[in-house]
Hints:
The protein has 358 residues and is mostly helical. The protein has helices spanning 8-11, 35-39, 47-59, 81-112, 117-142, 150-156, 164-191, 204-224, 232-255, 257-262, 267-282, 297-315, 321-343, 354-357, and strands spanning 30-32, 159-161, 288-290, 347-349.
Amino acid sequence: xxxxxxxxxxxxxxxxxxxxxxxxxxxxxxxxxxxxxxxxxxxxxxxxxxxxxxxxxxxxxxxxxxxxxxxxxxxxxxxxxxxxxxxxxxxxxxxxxxxxxxxxxxxxxxxxxxxxxxxxxxxxxxxxxxxxxxxxxxxxxxxxxxxxxxxxxxxxxxxxxxxxxxxxxxxxxxxxxxxxxxxxxxxxxxxxxxxxxxxxxxxxxxxxxxxxxxxxxxxxxxxxxxxxxxxxxxxxxxxxxxxxxxxxxxxxxxxxxxxxxxxxxxxxxxxxxxxxxxxxxxxxxxxxxxxxxxxxxxxxxxxxxxxxxxxxxxxxxxxxxxxxxxxxxxxxxxxxxxxxxxxxxxxxxxxxxxxxxx
Length: 358
Ligand SMILES: [Fe+2]
Ligand SMILES: [Fe+2]
């Protein structure tokens, strides 16, 4: 699937442009929200923090960072077979996800212009960073003879509506998990330069600082709205989104084990490190977090990953849809059951430790 080049007549795409992967629950989505509600948000409770993060975003530390060096100028055909497929898949998923951030932030900036100039400026600075990230990843895909038509994606992919509260929880988490994903790969490759198969990873250190700043901006939005952290609903949604993001991460990382192996990373260990660190970071913004050190936590998540891979295998087994559906049911039940058990594990109250971590 990942190495297929789009047939222009069939898809309306230009030659050499990669057909977008089939949309699944794991594909990064494009979002839209209630722009009016965001324009009216009162941020006065976090004024100093907002000004501090705006100053950081305006400083534009990575203005000259995303410039391809001469290391990219070579043939990459030695990355082949399953590693190549998994690597292109990693690039595509990352590019789509960065671009999804760009579209949402750009639209927020546009819609808030004249109504909430401070937020409009902040979203435009965030969009600037995500455009660089997506563009850099798309150029990396071109090194493998493919690229994404981002204009085509903008017009043709469905947009999912999330209320502002959900946008704040999920974007905060995706920025922070993005930070940990990039920095852990970077640190690993620093310690093991023999696995540095492609120069993209050398850019991750400064790159992840962009994601960290984006996460800090969303932390300001979250903490400025008491209803997002001072009641039972907020605790419910915090743990719900943590679990959703961690389950998605586990499924996608374990499905692409061969890519991580190609750069000397054990996918299970990496998944755990990313999740443990993101959960710990979320303690600074969310009212409640998960206990990722509970002995049942990762075994249950990994059972979901096995069930998800089985579902994918059933989807491609050429049997009639009705039969596939019957084959899938028990595996869907496994995922639902494991997620429910995970959600019901004891949680950690982050508000009680807030004075200590802030
Ligand atoms: Fe990004
Ligand atoms: Fe970001």
